[in-house]
Design goal:
By secondary structure, the chain is mainly α. It has one domain. It has seven helices and no strands. It has helices at 3-11, 14-21, 25-51, 61-89, 92-96, 99-125, 132-153. Helix 3 packs antiparallel against helix 4. The chain is elongated. The chain starts with a helix and ends in a 12-residue tail after the last helix.
């Protein structure tokens, strides 16, 4: 089964038809998704600001990271299913052809990989074993990766018209 075939199957499934027919299901899903975004944004931002030395300086970095990681995982449990449901509520095949959608999905995968593979090791190593410059670099990369997702969500699709490049 190709990816396009899967997207077509999603678009025409009976669950989706019922969801699209309801005036309140999509707003409810979108509201829950936004709460998950607030949670993930807060948990990522707290750790990255701590890595930059801009907040919570009296708490150990590893403790801040452990506390925030719980909220990060909770937010992922909220975001992933509600994101899939939001995706399914619209024409799924439309997303298949949108470059911004694929950039957003790649950014999400890279941000998650970086957060759990690189940033976690840096924060758990402790402040004495990692240099301040390394901490700042990791925080900057993390903020850049996580910041790519909202920017891609707001990128309007340009329609080509006659005479446009």
């Amino acid at each position: 089964m190709s990816l396009l075939t899967f997207f077509e199957w999603l678009q025409y499934s009976s669950l989706l038809s019922a969801m699209r027919g309801s005036p309140w299901i999509f707003p409810l899903i979108a509201s829950i998704h936004l709460m998950g975004l607030a949670l993930i944004g807060g948990s990522v931002l707290l750790v990255d600001l701590r890595l930059l030395g801009l907040g919570m300086r009296h708490q150990p970095l590893a403790q801040v990271a452990r506390d925030c990681e719980r909220w990060l995982l909770v937010s992922l449990v909220i975001l992933l299913p509600t994101g899939v449901l939001q995706f399914m509520c619209f024409a799924a095949t439309k997303y298949y052809y949108m470059k911004a959608f694929w950039v957003k999905m790649a950014a999400l995968a890279l941000a998650l990989l970086f957060t759990f593979a690189v940033r976690r090791r840096v924060v758990m190593a402790g402040e004495t074993r990692m240099s301040s410059i390394w901490n700042k670099l990791v925080a900057g990369v993390s903020l850049g990766l996580w910041g790519t997702r909202p920017r891609q969500s707001r990128t309007p699709m340009r329609r080509k018209t006659k005479g446009s490049p």
